[in-house]
User: What shape does this take?
Amino acid sequence: MEEVENSSKRKAAELDSEDNSTAAVPDGQQPLPCSATKRPNLARSCIHEVAVPNGYDLAKDEVVNGTLSNPVFNGEMAKTDKQKVIYTSPLKALSNQKYRELSQEFSDVGLMTGDVTLQPNATCLVMTTEILRAMLYRGSEVIKEVGWVIFDEIHYMKDRERGVVWEESIVFLPPAIKMVFLSATMSNATEFAEWICNLHKQPCHVVYTDFRPTPLQHYVFPIGGFGLYLVVDENGQFREDNFLKLQDTFAKQPSQLDGRKGGGPKANGRIAKGGNASGTSDIYIIVKVGQDEFWPYFVFTSVKKWDGDSNRYIGSGEYIQMSGRAGHRGKDKRGICVIMIDEKMEMSVIKDMVLGKPAPLISTFRLSYYTILNLLSRAEGQFTAEHVIQNSFHQFQYEKALPEVVQKITSLENEASLLDSSGENDLAEYHKLVLDISELEKKIMSEMIRRERALLYLVPGRLVKVRDGSTDWGWGVVVNVVKKPAASSTLPPALSASRGNNYIVDTLLHCSSSSNENGSRSKPCPPRPGEKGEMHVVPVPLPLVSGLSSVRINIPSDLRPPEARQNILSAVQELGKCYPQGLPNLHPIAVKILLT
Assistant: This one.
């Protein structure tokens, strides 16, 4: 793949509302005229860059694309060139909204989604990106009449499930069709532009700005509490004093909420999102407080989301996208965002969420069966799987990062060659001894967990270590040992009994909270790093017990209340602090002596 040169020209203007003067810009750069007034203490800037393919002669299209010292697009637009324009969006609801908005401006607008088709022969067509890809697959005649394609919310390309739709559509579009990409959360727009110009062998202009015409204010509301706390003002300044006041409200909540029903602040907070207008609903309180001063405003009822892997805080890019719906240009003087939180948040967490920069666009391209079948049956040999892979954004990012990876490998190899290898034999011998010790420990444990020995020590409260293949559960607490019903087996009775597979150890293990997401009983798994998790009784086959500790703890007779199980988790964690080198193991010699 050719190396892409990123020749760019930046035009930046900073306008102050007091003197209306333009700030100085580097030599060779022209200030961008701004006719709108500015709010105080904020700089308004617009950056214009252009990426060109390697070896491209920009002078031949100077009238269209300008020069490297002054990039500007002066090409024919579809409206004057009598060509069709396709406007794509990721959601049907957004497509319907754009259809209504464009219909108010233009008379010839059509809509194509999976549910509705209106005026499919219109000059301006609004559709979902999936519809566009399907048209490209089947070689629709409509594509031959298209001059421009507008991709709204292009950052959806990093979506794990649907991102490949955008990537394939861009790869399949003919080079003669001009493209416009819209996004409020693409921090690596220049890299994306390099891919586009490398793919279609045409210059790609990047115009972006951090300026927001309608300023935003960000408030936080403590669930189950009272009051709105301004944490980020309209100038983008974080108000630490207000955040500390917010944290103080959580310390006061337990005493204030003792008389309420719902089992504590968190449970009450979940209930309070609904309710009625009696004054106990958190939503009602927000509306009551803000209806006179803040209306309208955008409310985040939670700062966490389930992304398919974990229940995490929303990212800065996601927050920017959703909070951008607060405050409409030309209609509102400011936009108000209210964030409802139901637990103490670190200052750095909420700072990164509200003021952080969006994550870069990383390709999630994959070659699916759907793509392969369409390439074979519907694309009529125009494209191959190799062509799609070679021209994907994923491949472009990989090849772009490759020189840096090679340089790093070379640097590490050079460092390794300078290392003193005088102790290499001793290190190899030490490593062999570690492996031998590990094998001996496995043999000892296999003898200790034999049925006639292990059942004497697997009593309630005993701490045991559990390992299932590569999954290390760590230490758990024995609750009970039960014998599985005998199953039909071709093995002799003596051999079958000696294997110990017919015993189940009910063990309290530290599990991920996502094990019971949406009430479903999926396979238990250990908590992820940083996840709080919770204790659950898990049936463990006897052979999966990989360690017996000499430590026992008292367990309550009723383990159904979550508080009882969490107390045991706290006890196990405290024991881990008391024994930083590891819990003491049950001595195998003592076990043998007691048995004899």
Notes: DSSP finds 19 helices and 21 strands in the chain. The first strand starts at residue 47 and ends at 51. The two ends are 74 Å apart (CA to CA). Residues 574 and 580 are 10 Å apart (CA to CA).
